UniProtKB/TrEMBL annotation:
Its cofactor is FAD. GO terms for biological process: fatty acid beta-oxidation using acyl-CoA dehydrogenase; fatty-acyl-CoA biosynthetic process. SUPFAM superfamilies: Acyl-CoA dehydrogenase C-terminal domain-like, Acyl-CoA dehydrogenase NM domain-like. This is Acyl-CoA dehydrogenase. It comes from Streptomyces monashensis. Residues 24-136 form the Acyl-CoA dehydrogenase/oxidase N-terminal domain. Residues 140-231 form the Acyl-CoA oxidase/dehydrogenase middle domain. Residues 244-390 form the Acyl-CoA dehydrogenase/oxidase C-terminal domain.
Length: 397
């Protein structure tokens, strides 16, 4: 670099210059989702969270469909066909608003739609995916059970053939996002030929989805139990290309990738709130942001935040190149959610008592991330995935 060359100015919002890695199309996706969230979520989400509800979810889903956010990394059938990085940027912006909104989108696109897109028949794809991409039909994903979370192979929900024709499903699923508002559920069940996935219209007799109340996390999100009592489905309701745990676990890996990005959105929102507060809150005659201990906290938060975004970007490029392994997704979820929670907790200390108020986003993000920490793979499960990959020894059992 010549002596006359000028370095770009330091950007406190992008201290590593990560935006330089993004294409104009990437930035356009990010800006579109950020603008939508600023208009349709941020003015209302504190009230939604306080009331423990997500009103107008059908309208929100249709709006998300109109901007291409539902199943956005899938191709065909009305889906946007966006890159993995663009999908990740969308998840970051959605979770910067609230984890519940990102969960709505993740379950719709990366679990329910992804399962049908990857493992479904052409008839199933054509029937459901265009309407789900448009937000006209909301989907849910029934894997976790009341007694079997981290060990889905032991699920008790079962499906039996009735005289070689119809399937009859019985069982329970628990902690199912979107369950009470879904028009279609992808349900995984034991069969005589192993675990299979089923496309279940939620209006089918015997299917019900009571909403789970009294949550202190993900309060601006619909969470339900799925109850299947002799739910009769036609023979072609089964996903033909999925047998065994490979099917649901591949869906989870796709959804976990979105969490790697999304967690950094919650962290960014809390970090920005802490920076703004530190510059305006005065103690001992000057802003607290001018004290060494506060600056040390902000510096450490910025380092972990932007390291996490850089990690998410790297994994996104690997996914776009077809080179992303499930172990690498575990690496990202383990690190980014854990660091995001620590950023929120540190932000809370900077805001002091105001940090627990819904006038600021920090405590809302912190409590949401407590759910994100354990859903779609607990810390321990991701540690064991990485431990097995590093040593070649299986410590799960």
């Amino acid at each position: 670099m010549s002596a006359s060359s000028k370095l770009p100015p330091f950007d406190p919002a992008d201290p590593l210059g990560i935006d330089d890695l993004l294409e104009p199309e990437d930035l356009a996706v990010r800006d579109t989702v950020r603008a939508w969230a600023a208009d349709r979520v941020l003015p209302y989400v504190a009230e939604w969270y306080e009331n423990g509800e997500l009103p107008g979810i059908g309208e929100l889903a249709r709006e998300l469909g109109s901007i291409g956010a539902l199943g956005m990394s899938l191709t065909g059938y009305g889906c946007a066909g966006a890159s993995a990085v663009q999908y990740g940027l969308a998840c970051l912006e959605l979770e910067a608003a609230d984890s519940g909104i990102r969960s709505l989108v993740s379950v719709q696109g990366s679990l329910a739609m992804y399962a049908i897109h990857r493992f479904g028949s052409e008839e199933q794809k054509n029937e459901w995916l265009p309407r789900m991409a448009a937000g006209e039909v909301i989907g849910c994903f029934g894997l976790t059970e009341p007694d079997h979370g981290s060990d889905p192979a032991s699920m008790r929900t079962h499906a039996k053939r009735d005289g070689g024709g119809d399937w009859v499903l019985n069982g329970r699923k628990m902690w199912i996002t979107n369950g009470s508002v879904a028009g279609v559920a992808v349900v995984w069940a034991q069969t005589e030929n192993g675990i299979r996935g089923f496309v279940v219209p939620t209006g089918t007799p015997g299917f019900s989805a009571p909403e789970i109340k009294h949550k202190w996390s993900l309060r601006a999100s619909v969470t339900s139990e799925l109850v299947l009592d002799d739910v009769r489905l036609p023979a072609d309701a089964v996903l033909p290309e999925a047998t065994g745990l490979r099917g649901p676990l591949s869906c989870l890996s796709h959804a976990r990738y979105g969490i790697v990005w999304g967690a950094m959105g919650a962290a960014r929102s809390s970090f920005e709130a802490a920076v703004d507060y530190a510059k305006s809150r005065e103690q001992f005659g000057r802003p607290i942001g001018g004290f060494q201990l506060t600056q040390a906290k902000l510096a450490d938060m910025a380092v972990e935040l932007h390291k996490g975004i850089l990690l998410a970007h790297h994994l996104g490029r690997r996914m776009d190149a077809g080179r992303l392994r499930p172990e690498q997704v575990s690496f990202g979820k383990l690190n980014n959610v854990r660091e995001a929670i620590e950023i929120c907790r540190t932000a809370r200390t900077i805001l002091g008592a105001n940090g627990i108020s819904l006038e600021y986003p920090v405590m809302r993000h912190a409590t949401n991330l407590e759910s994100v920490l354990t859903y779609e793979g607990t810390v321990e499960m991701h540690q064991l995935v990485l431990g097995k990959a590093l040593t070649g020894l299986d410590a799960f059992r």
